[in-house]
């Protein structure tokens, strides 16, 4: 018996219903003494004509089931007076009944798969809540699945039940925790844009004994690492901060505030939008050029806008992670030279994935967790000028302090520094810059051959591809189904769920053969391919 290989569906065939009635009898007559025995050893539920049965099949054997109905009165209405008074606000609910699983198949995976199929059915049919009479001895299991108890117990003896309800939000919260536990035991391949697949040498370096950020050995290591980053980007200076790209962008916003001049921010995705949030929080004065997500900028239009608002600086995302669109850095450099303004770039998804020449770039940010294939937790700020300490900037964001103290004004992490150094070694040895570009082209080719709809209609950013799902699919559910097939893709970010997109990333260390696997599995899930390879 392999419970992870069960097929879950709505019962439609006569033989499936026959087995449903038999499982109903074994569970609610023989195991839970709720009904009278009979010679046929079958029990047809009194609401059978109104029930929809979701079943788990092992071959042609029904080994798990759950029934759903929406016709009032519910069986709970008969047991609890004023049922609706016990429940939180909702629009439409259904009742779940007859949750039953053969003893040999009772593990958390099967119960969660049934619950997930239930939630999907509810969403597709407009229900935002489901109620159930949960067997008293299985309360721990129900709670693990997201159910909340309410009202008095019903039944008697060994057939006592606790009324419970579940919503999508409650179940999803539990499902994410379950998924993390389940995937720890699976041999999965990550196509996430962070964390990305890392070399074993990086993992070993991360586990080495930590040392003080004041120790001469650490300072020497940090100095060498900064030199390598400067060499990779042609930057005069780089500061390494303990944080993520978000911290780096906050530090940049604080520096732009010292200019006290008008700026221009370019937005064509989630991370461009976040730049405007950084700027607003820092009290910057700026205009925006905003275009639909997934499109490329008209650089003549940007030039005209920069001239019109007399922009002293232009802030843009080089590689827009949320859409997979790469901006033309040379065009941006041309515009800032033409307008005598300063170019500021978020390079979090471009460092390590595309050639990055930061000459003529005033400030640029990146991080350790994407293209260079190390652990997240280090933010980089690149620049070419001397930055003085400013008492008007919060200490942790003051690049002047980092400039003065060679990236160590505060506590640092020797483990993250060692891991990043090892990652750059592996990044160079494996020629990941060329590799990521090649794999992105292959990934796009597979997607097109399998009928998957790609978002971007312009230059694709090496490292990540955004796929538009059919309206009848849900990004988070598709992502979880792929995870069970051993492929982790980006699907849970709010901006992806809102637009019904998923993303496949080839940042870090990947194999070409795995691209066939993930695109095949995705094509099957969304109905672009008939059989699983």
UniProtKB/TrEMBL annotation:
- InterPro entries reported for this sequence: Acyl_CoA_acyltransferase, Aminotrans_V_dom, GNAT_dom, PyrdxlP-dep_Trfase, PyrdxlP-dep_Trfase_major, PyrdxlP-dep_Trfase_small
**Is DNA-binding among the key words of this record?**
no
Give the superkingdom in one word. Bacteria
Q: Which cofactor does it need?
A: pyridoxal 5'-phosphate
GO process terms (BP): glycine biosynthetic process, by transamination of glyoxylate
Q: Name one Pfam family in it.
A: Acetyltransf_1
GO molecular function list: acyltransferase activity, transferring groups other than amino-acyl groups; alanine-glyoxylate transaminase activity; L-serine-pyruvate transaminase activity
State if Nucleus is listed as a keyword.
no
Q: Which residues form the N-acetyltransferase domain?
A: 6-169
Question: What keywords sit in the KW lines?
Answer: Pyridoxal phosphate
| Protein name per the record | N-acetyltransferase domain-containing protein
**Source species:** Terribacillus saccharophilus
Q: What is the lineage of its organism?
A: Bacteria, Bacillati, Bacillota, Bacilli, Bacillales
């Amino acid at each position: 018996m392999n419970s992870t290989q069960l097929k879950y569906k709505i019962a439609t065939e006569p033989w499936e219903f026959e087995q449903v009635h038999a499982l109903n009898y074994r569970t609610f007559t023989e195991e839970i003494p709720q009904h009278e025995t009979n010679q046929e050893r079958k029990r047809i539920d009194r609401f059978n004509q109104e029930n929809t049965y979701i079943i788990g099949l092992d071959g042609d054997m029904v080994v798990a089931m759950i029934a759903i109905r929406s016709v009032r009165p519910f069986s709970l209405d008969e047991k609890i007076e004023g049922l609706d008074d016990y429940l939180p606000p909702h629009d439409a609910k259904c009742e779940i009944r007859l949750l039953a699983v053969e003893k040999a198949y009772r593990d958390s995976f099967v119960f969660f798969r049934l619950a997930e199929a239930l939630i999907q059915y509810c969403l597709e049919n407009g229900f935002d809540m489901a109620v159930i009479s949960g067997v008293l001895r299985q309360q721990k299991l129900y709670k693990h699945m997201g159910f909340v108890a309410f009202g008095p117990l019903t039944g008697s003896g060994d057939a006592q039940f606790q009324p419970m309800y579940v919503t999508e939000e409650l179940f999803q919260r539990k499902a994410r925790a379950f998924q993390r536990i389940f995937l720890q035991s699976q041999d999965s391949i990550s196509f996430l844009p962070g964390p990305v697949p890392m070399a074993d040498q990086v993992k070993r370096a991360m586990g080495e004994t930590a040392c003080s950020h004041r120790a001469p050995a650490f300072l020497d290591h940090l100095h060498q690492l900064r030199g390598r980053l400067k060499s990779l980007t042609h930057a005069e200076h780089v500061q390494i901060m303990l944080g993520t790209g978000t911290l780096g962008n906050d530090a940049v916003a604080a520096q732009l505030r010292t200019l006290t001049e008008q700026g221009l921010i370019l937005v064509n995705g989630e991370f461009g939008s976040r730049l405007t949030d950084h700027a607003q929080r820092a009290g910057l004065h700026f205009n925006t050029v905003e275009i639909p997500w997934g499109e490329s900028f008209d650089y003549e239009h940007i030039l005209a806008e920069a001239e019109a608002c007399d922009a002293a600086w232009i802030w843009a995302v080089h590689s827009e992670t949320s859409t997979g669109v790469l901006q033309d850095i040379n065009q941006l450099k041309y515009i800032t030279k033409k307008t005598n303004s300063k170019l500021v770039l978020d390079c979090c998804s471009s460092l390590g994935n595309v050639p990055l020449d930061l000459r003529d770039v005033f400030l640029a940010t990146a991080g350790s967790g994407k293209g260079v294939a190390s652990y997240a937790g280090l933010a980089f700020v690149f620049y070419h000028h001397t930055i003085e300490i400013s008492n008007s900037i919060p200490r942790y964001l003051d690049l002047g302090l980092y400039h003065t103290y060679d990236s160590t004004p505060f506590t640092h992490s020797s483990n993250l520094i060692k891991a990043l150094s090892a990652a750059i070694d592996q990044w160079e040895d494996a020629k990941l810059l060329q590799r990521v570009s090649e794999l992105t082209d292959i990934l796009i080719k597979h997607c097109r051959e399998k009928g998957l709809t790609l978002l971007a209609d312009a230059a694709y950013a090496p490292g990540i591809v955004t796929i538009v799902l059919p309206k009848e699919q849900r990004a988070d559910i598709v992502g979880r189904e792929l995870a069970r097939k051993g492929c982790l893709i980006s699907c849970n970010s709010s901006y992806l769920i809102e637009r019904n997109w998923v993303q496949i990333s080839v940042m870090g260390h990947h194999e070409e053969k795995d691209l066939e696997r993930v695109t095949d599995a995705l094509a099957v899930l969304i109905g672009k391919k008939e059989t699983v390879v």
